[in-house]
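Appendix B.2, paired examples.
Example (i):
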Amino acid sequence: MALPIRLPHLLPAAALALTAALAVAGCTTAQAPVSPAGTGGSTSADGGPPALTTAQAAAAFGRYVTTTATAEKTNDRTLALSVVTGPQRSVVSSAITEAGYAHRTVSLDPYTYGTPTFYLPQAGGYPRFFVASAPRDYPGTDPSDTYATWVGSAEAPLNGTALLLFEQSSSGSPWQLASTSVLAFGASMPRLAADADGAIPTVSLSATTLLARPDVTGPLQAAVVDDGPSSAASAAVAAGPLTTGMHQGASDHVLGLTAPAGDLYQWSLEGSGYASFTFKTADGAALVFYSMYLDTVVATPSYIDKGSPIEPGARIAYPEELDPWIGTRPYRHSVQRQDLLTFAAVDPPASGGKIQVIAVGGGLNYAAAS
């Protein structure tokens, strides 16, 4: 079964998002409303969950690390999935699929983490979240050396500072790892705002005192990834490895899909249905955590145009990492891959600056061919 091709539909949405974002940024002066963690619900002074403590965050982080290590050692895939949710669950599920195809023990999280720093939001509604920032090292590498890897079409550090976002969906449910993103080359964690107790305010996803509403940060980034520096969204999004660099990586076919003569090659970064979260920075910006799908396809023109009949083309070459999903058959109509990527971006105040996408994580989510 082939993935639906949604690539031609992204650019109008991205253009509308840019227009709306810039219009909002140019005409609003009201104070940005502060919301609880998650998608912007209201805070309950007497009915909401209590503020999260560092001890609770440390316990959740430690549980993830030890449980994942045990699951990998015992090849217990159910145990591995018990400590992850959201995009990270997709990452782990993909690792399990690949391991099952290759008849080997699953590798869940090969990194070694250093001492974490915890960023805890002010008390709010569910879903709750917190972020652990920790140095990570890949076994067998020298942490002082610079190693690069591909995450989707983005070049990112193999080692470096990881931002691990944990989520609790409801009262009584466990804390689970929702995403892991590594700071890009040259990026650093912004200084965050904090109250007298050290808790960090969150920002409504619909806040209008920023350069763009936080909930359109992803679409603006997507327009640059799709169209490159010439995109109108470049007026609001800074160039860098996770914006123009991703565009260049996709143009250079870093994911291993190349169109034979007569076929078409396309890619599109588009939104997902996973929750987004925010922190307020010390200078009034929003640090936004969100996820996006990167869809990449090689296909015949008649397949893209939904012709009837769909005419086959030359055999399409594809990387071995897609084998667990599509096998090793020759395909002449289309080969498609979908990566689920997680990002952190700084959305600046309306008074100046551009959106800076500072961290990326995730990986291959699915593939299909015909």
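Example (ii):
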Amino acid sequence: MTELVSIIVRTKNEGKWLKDCLTAVSKQTYKNFEIIIVDNDSTDNTLEIARQFKVKIVGIKKYMPGKSLNKGIRNSSGEIITALSGHCIPTNEYWLANLIRNFRDKNVMGVYGRQEPLPSTSDIDKCDLIYTFRLERIIQVKDPFFYNANSMFRRSMWEQTPFNESILSIEDWLWGMAVIKSGFKLIYEPEASVYHYHGIHQNRDNVRRNNIIKLFGETGIINNKVSEKELKEWKLNAEKAGT
């Protein structure tokens, strides 16, 4: 494949990571790409570092993950879009090629890659990443899980279903739901790996976790309502079993 890939990098005070991130991107074997930085009022040296590379910089004042990503895409030209967090670092020069090769299948709308911990990652987050991002490639036709710290998707699907701009998380998971409901596929590609210093639950941040669980219920990702009758039957059966 030779399509132009637009790499959208969302940043907020990413000075510690961004040089390594963009250096790794610049060394990719797949060369037909552009980089759009969407920066949320960074106060460190993030923008100074970004200007050392061939990038387009757009700003956003009020950060929402979906809104930031949508703005970056609207300022891009590629038919294939990659989302990469500013604190994620591709582990090798084949990262981009290993993502895009999955789009030879016209029914694939989105691909997300592996995330590996750094030595400085907390033990909780290391377990989080290791348990979540395994070594086996997965074709998803029912499971809508998708993760935009390291992902790629077709612009045509995004035009049909832009990312939700009103929520603080799981905008990628909701987008994955739309893909699956439309009868298309998602792919987990472990060969397209990045280093990520925190886990997907960010060291078990309670506020973030509670917000995610609330959104799961509101959006229908979790839909396992149990009737009062079933609860009473379970309780009765448990009492009979002596538990």
